[in-house]
Write a structure and sequence with these properties.
The structure holds two protein chains of two kinds.
Chain A lengths: L4 E3 L2 E4 L5 E6 L6 E7 L6 E7 L2 E5 L7 E4 L6 E5 L8 E8 L1 E2 L2 E2 L3 E2 L3 E5 L1
Parallel strand pairs in A: 2-13
Antiparallel strand pairs in A: 1-3, 3-8, 4-5, 4-9, 5-6, 7-8, 9-12, 9-13, 10-11
Chain B lengths: L3 E2 L5 E4 L4 E7 L6 E7 L6 E6 L3 E5 L2 E6 L4 E6 L8 E8 L7 E2 L3 E6 L1
Parallel strand pairs in B: 2-11
Antiparallel strand pairs in B: 1-3, 3-8, 4-5, 4-9, 6-7, 7-8, 9-10, 9-11
Classes of the chains: A mainly beta, B mainly beta.
């Protein structure tokens, strides 16, 4: 397994356009997290999945953001009607939950979004 | 109160010294704790995890957990210039399964 994979690595879009990012987790991992990170800040939690179920979504996340994880494998994060404030690094991580114990999460390389 | 708090730094130490990085968390029911290192422009990479009170050592790194004080720390022995990075503390609160990060502490190791 080559680890967590994110695509694309970079995305430049015009304000108002929709964008979609993809994350392929480590194959045996049942948990998948999405984060947003801006310069000088720690990763900000957006949402997470346990298998295909989206268990929690940040209250800070507007309705323009949506995430899916069909079949509990890869996940997509869509941002509709992008705004300049959406410019950030979007990070995906995956981990394994066994009998209520959550193991370490490993990150993908991230997708850097620039909204112009 | 933030769920996970770290001093943003920068923390500056001379090469060969011990660097001590600290983190506090708000949820007393938290069970899982992690330290990550992040170089500029890169994604976080896991250093180590700790789940029970006490110390856990891995090479030059030692994580310390004190659940009574809601405090977790990372010690880096024999600090090297290559250790210069931002160190992120992460916690899974007891009432939720999400993984929450602090803002990170920037460490500078001067040759």
């Amino acid at each position: 397994d080559t680890g967590v994979s994110q695509n694309p690595r970079h995305k430049i879009t015009k304000r108002g356009q929709n964008v979609t990012f993809r994350c392929d987790p480590i194959s045996e991992h049942n948990r998948l997290y999405w984060y947003r990170q801006t310069l000088g800040q720690g990763p900000e939690f957006l949402t997470y999945f346990q298998n295909e179920a989206q268990l929690e979504k940040s209250r800070l996340l507007s309705d323009r953001f949506s995430a899916e994880r069909p079949k509990g494998s890869f996940s997509t994060l869509e941002i509709q009607r992008t705004e300049q404030g959406d410019s950030a690094m979007y990070l995906c991580a995956s981990s394994l939950e066994i009998m209520t114990v959550v193991t370490e999460a490993f990150f993908g390389q991230g997708t850097r979004l620039t909204v112009v | 109160q933030k769920e996970v708090e770290q001093n943003s730094g920068p923390l500056s130490v001379p090469e060969g010294a011990i660097a001590s990085l600290n983190c506090t968390y708000s949820d007393r029911g938290s069970q899982s704790f992690f330290w990550y290192r992040q170089y500029s422009g890169k994604s976080p990479e896991l250093i180590m995890s700790i789940y029970s009170n006490g110390d856990k050592e891995d090479g030059r790194f030692t994580a310390q957990l004190n659940k009574a004080s809601q405090y977790v720390s990372l010690l880096i022995r024999d600090s090297q210039p290559s250790d210069s990075a931002t160190y992120l503390c992460a916690v899974i609160p007891g009432n939720t399964g999400k993984l929450i990060f602090g803002q990170g502490t920037t460490l500078q190791v001067k040759p």
